Amino acid sequence: MNNIESIIKEAILQIKEADLKAIESIKVKYSGKSGVLTQILKSLSNCSVDDKKRIGQEANKAKNIIETEIELRKEALKKEILEEKMQKEKLDYSNKFYFPFTKGSFHPIIQTIQDISSVFKSLGFSIAQGPEIETNWYNFEALNIPQNHPARDVQDTFYLVGMKELLRTHTSPGQIHVMETQKPPIRVIVPGKVYRNEASDATHSATFHQVEGLSVDENITFVDLKAVLSDFTHEFFGTDVDIRFRPSYFQFTEPSAEVDMQCIFCKGKGCRICKNSGWIELLGCGMVHPNVLKAVNYDSEKYTGYAFGIGVERIAMFKYGIDDIRLFYENDLRFLKQF
Ligand code: FA5
């Protein structure tokens, strides 16, 4: 009997120290098929009836005690593991690490696109989107840019594998998408990102943004174009800003012009930014070429239109007094936090 009591004590001590793996071998050791208590029960066959009864009862009681202790320990161990896991995964909702919040803001280019858009919205323009991956048809052919035009040279255009698709080199394909799906009167802007295979400098980048503008209706003239662009520049930069329309050439407009703004960095005297000309080019524009209207099955005898393509980075440089376009893409927080 003393032996059974010491077996219980010894087992309980081991159970208290055991982990989940060890506890299974303790079970085998005491109450398994060849376990200590099972052996005691088996050895009773030669004992007297009294001894069989007394020792048998005590051995079974010991077996129950040990098995209960084992189950309790197993439960406690599982709970401990779960709590440890929850502790590790617990989120700290207290505010000690997170205040004060640093306020986010729009990138100056996004902000400029929003500002340009809201001026044109106030002038009655709606906003449309076009894809960045285009076909030759939308980027060139429908815009009256023939196969041998230098703008189609692989030097300027990023073609996708297979040469069938390309990254749009300007937002003008947006004109075609709009005219294909809408009938005149049209008054729309198409903002977006464009790509050109060219070296970057203080005023040029290989990836930049444009806002395309298009208006098509009966009796639209160059006077309407001049009026809308003058309204835009004065609304955006203020009435004291000096702009000029300079005759130019685009395959998809006739006549064509470029709009320059007096360089704000040197006040027109000439500097590195304006390449000593005193002016910085803001946008290209003109009257929509009849061939473009024909490409979208518009009646070019009935309808006329104007179009323009604004360089967003150039506008942002003017607005914020930035002398190098590359600053927009470096994502230096010291620069971005100023906006
Ligand atoms: C065009 O892209 C014509 N699609 C614009 C147009 C639309 C003309 C509709 C007529 C009718 P251009 O290549 O000149 O034109 O670019 C337009 C404007 O984008 C420029 O005036 C300039 O402000 C800006 N721009 C041009 N190249 C770059 C460049 N590499 N980096 C930053 N801005 C640029």
Set down the secondary structure blueprint.
Blueprint: H1 2-17, H2 20-31, H3 36-42, H4 49-89, H5 108-122, E1 126-127, E2 133-135, H6 136-139, E3 165-167, H7 173-181, E4 186-195, E5 207-217, H8 222-237, E6 243-250, E7 253-262, E8 279-288, H9 290-295, E9 304-311, H10 312-320, H11 333-336
Parallel strand pairs: 1-4
Antiparallel strand pairs: 2-3, 4-5, 5-9, 6-7, 7-8, 8-9
Helix pairs in contact: 1-4, 2-4, 3-4, 5-10
Bound molecules: adenosine-5'-[phenylalaninyl-phosphate].
Adenosine-5'-[phenylalaninyl-phosphate] binds at residues 170, 172, 196, 198, 204-205, 208, 210, 250, 253, 281-286, 307-309, 311, 313-314.
What does this structure look like?
- With 339 residues, the chain is α+β, with helices and mostly antiparallel strands.
- The chain contains 11 helices and 9 strands.
- It has helices spanning 2-17, 20-31, 36-42, 49-89, 108-122, 136-139, 173-181, 222-237, 290-295, 312-320, 333-336; strands at residues 126-127, 133-135, 165-167, 186-195, 207-217, 243-250, 253-262, 279-288, 304-311.
- The strands form 2 sheets. A 7-stranded mixed beta sheet has the order 1-4-5-9-8-7-6, sandwiched between helices. The chain has a two-stranded antiparallel ribbon with strand order 2-3.
- The N and C termini lie far apart (87 Å).
- The model has no long low-confidence stretch (mean pLDDT 91).
- The structure holds adenosine-5'-[phenylalaninyl-phosphate].
- Residues 170, 172, 196, 198, 204-205, 208, 210, 250, 253, 281-286, 307-309, 311, 313-314 line the site of adenosine-5'-[phenylalaninyl-phosphate].
